[in-house]
């Protein structure tokens, strides 16, 4: 029996494939998958989904392990076991906005895809804010006056710069995470342990 690993489609999928390759795994099936949403390798079955859905597949035991961004774990807080950080998908949360923006009375209005993370961060600072939940490019909100500032993931900062925004506060750093179904860790320990240990050894090596 092979374990099932749910992978976040897109950038994390590609970075995880490179991570596996550097760790001695045969990644040819992952590279040649075309439009298929599930692939079998010599070591595991892989399924490909959006990040938020990866946590759902793992939580319900469809997948034993999952590769997902820490931002989703912090925002959604799914009932999964957060095993370990991985040495890719590194970025940071930040508060950003126009250099000239300032809150003139009332609550600061924050546009974000991550209302839970933003609310918790400002609450810990003793601040009360109004949240505007957006799903698309949050950088647009301060440009059009919808919000004073934004809370979002920043990698290179190029998108902010191109839209005339700056980082005002660094919040915290994060990376990709390996998560596990709680029951799988107990019932499939013998087949999951070698894979999990190889991830840990690679992390230590780096």
Automatic annotation (TrEMBL):
Boundaries of every ATP phosphoribosyltransferase catalytic domain copy: 53-199
Coiled coil (residue ranges): none
Pathway(s): Amino-acid biosynthesis; L-histidine biosynthesis; L-histidine from 5-phospho-alpha-D-ribose 1-diphosphate: step 1/9
Protein name: ATP phosphoribosyltransferase
Catalyzed reaction equations: 1-(5-phospho-beta-D-ribosyl)-ATP + diphosphate = 5-phospho-alpha-D-ribose 1-diphosphate + ATP
Natural source organism: Lederbergia graminis
Free-text note on domains in this protein's UniProt record: Lacks the C-terminal regulatory region which is replaced by HisZ.
Keyword Hydrolase in annotation: no
Residues making up the signal peptide according to the UniProt record: none
CDD domains per record: PBP2_HisGs
